[in-house]
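TASK: fixed-backbone design
INPUT:
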């Protein structure tokens, strides 16, 4: 049944005939009932956070003609992060990169990087204009004949940074919980203190993390760095300054602070210490600082990528995947959650499948080879079901998940699918359902986990591993495999 209130030209989720549905192996109602059963047994968080990384330095390259996997993932993540402009849980974007590379000289005009972008925010022309403006700067960097990379960097990074901040001002003010922030309507009744006031707890924790006399120097240095940053945040909130410039300075100061060795060491020791509400609050504050400082990192890294992999960024094209309408459901874990949504990651997979049905050749022109996406970049970690979906679908790697299960998740059931696409999606849903049922059967009781943060930027080097030169495409599966991804369980009798 379709939601009749399909405004903004959103695509319908269900158009297939009953005889040609992707729910032919497992029924949709049974699938959703099993999801709700797992949510009830796990507080809707079936697994701990899981990450996958590529070993190798970001800048290690054997050629400027193609992107190493680690760079492809970083660029896709960064584009997704800045494409998700709106506030709230529904503001999620996903990006995958399709490289059209030259096989012979003289084909520069045919070579380009195609970025497929999905998410609810992309219907906004302001977001498209922002990304288009950033692409223009990156293309100038890639086409530049100047050998002075430092000069390119110093002139292009501030331009891109300013474009991003202009579009993300309200979102950043929301992260700051600033009085200068215009709250969304749904948050009108919420009242939280400003972020700068949370620094007191973060600073106080330092003496507990470094209590020894021998740690005095590192203790004092860490306190000094946090106190200096806290003053910048307080001044921003309590002085009547021009918002845009002050916000840019705050973001840059946050980035610089997060990249200090003593700050990274403090964050790691906090993470490894005994869990208390105070430590949990301190960690949450640090995570928020990472997300604020990330805007300056992204501007720098995009320019660095365009400079080093100039052949790839010579021409940039954005392909926007039209989002789908929501559909009603009466099988839910939460009584208020009565509509299902097609997550941005699923939108990309469906779009790639539909385009593949046209049987386009792997070459997009004479002497040009198309490299399909190897990973999907996201503005937030994958939810549990998107992670399961991509795992059983195959073809993509480097897919971290925050572990939260949303039963309002669904897959478009379209008449446009050919037999192979319909069979593929039906088998993926079957495998997902079997996985969920196994998890329910294996649980020793009711398992409780705190609701996780859904997005992370990792500026502080959390769980950072040594990078190995020349291993850009070697995937490191951090934590546990999907089949063993329970981590620490707290069983409630």
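OUTPUT:
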């Amino acid at each position: 049944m379709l939601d009749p209130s399909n405004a903004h030209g959103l695509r319908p989720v269900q158009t297939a005939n009953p005889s040609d549905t992707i729910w032919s192996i497992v029924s949709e109602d049974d699938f959703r009932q099993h999801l709700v059963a797992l949510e009830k047994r796990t507080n809707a968080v079936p697994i701990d956070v899981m990450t996958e990384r590529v070993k190798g330095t970001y800048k290690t390259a054997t050629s400027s003609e193609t992107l190493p996997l680690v760079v492809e993932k970083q660029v896709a993540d960064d584009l997704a992060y800045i494409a998700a402009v709106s506030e709230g849980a529904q503001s999620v974007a996903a990006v995958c990169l399709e490289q059209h590379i030259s096989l012979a000289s003289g084909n520069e005009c045919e070579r380009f990087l195609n970025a497929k972008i999905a998410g609810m925010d992309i219907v906004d022309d302001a977001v498209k204009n922002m990304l288009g403006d950033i692409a223009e700067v990156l293309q100038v960097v890639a086409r530049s004949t100047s050998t002075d990379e430092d000069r390119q960097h110093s002139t292009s990074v501030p331009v891109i940074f300013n474009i991003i901040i202009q579009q993300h001002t309200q979102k950043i003010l929301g992260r700051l919980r600033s009085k200068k922030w215009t709250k969304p309507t749904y948050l009108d009744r919420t009242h939280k203190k400003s972020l700068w006031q949370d620094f007191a707890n973060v600073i106080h924790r330092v003496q507990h993390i470094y209590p020894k006399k021998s740690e005095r120097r590192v203790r004092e240095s860490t306190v000094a760095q946090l106190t200096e940053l806290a003053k910048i945040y307080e001044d921003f909130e309590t002085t009547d300054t021009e918002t845009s410039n002050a916000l840019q300075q705050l973001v840059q100061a946050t980035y610089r602070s997060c990249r200090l060795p003593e700050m990274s060491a403090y964050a790691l020791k906090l993470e490894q210490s005994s869990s208390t509400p105070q430590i949990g609050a301190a960690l949450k504050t640090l995570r928020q600082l990472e997300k604020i400082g990330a805007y300056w990192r992204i501007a720098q890294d995009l320019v660095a990528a365009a400079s080093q992999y100039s052949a790839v960024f010579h021409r940039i094209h954005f392909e926007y995947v039209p989002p789908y309408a929501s559909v009603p459901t009466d099988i839910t874990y939460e009584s208020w959650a009565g509509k299902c949504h097609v997550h941005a990651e699923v939108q990309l997979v469906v779009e790639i499948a539909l385009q593949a049905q046209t049987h386009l050749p792997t070459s997009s022109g004479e002497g040009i080879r198309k490299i399909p996406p190897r990973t999907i970049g996201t503005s937030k970690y994958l939810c549990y079901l998107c992670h399961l979906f991509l795992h059983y679908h195959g073809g993509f790697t480097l897919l971290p998940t925050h572990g939260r299960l949303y039963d309002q998740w669904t897959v478009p059931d379209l008449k446009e699918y050919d037999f192979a696409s319909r069979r593929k999606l039906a088998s993926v849903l079957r495998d997902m359902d079997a996985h969920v049922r196994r998890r329910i059967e294996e649980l020793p009781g009711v398992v409780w986990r705190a609701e996780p943060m859904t997005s992370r930027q990792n500026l502080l080097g959390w769980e950072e591993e040594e990078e190995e030169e020349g291993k850009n495409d070697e995937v490191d599966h951090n934590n546990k495999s999907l089949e063993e991804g329970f981590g620490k369980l707290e069983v409630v009798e």
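COMMENT: Confidence is low (pLDDT under 50) at residues 1-7, 464-472, 477-481, 484-493.
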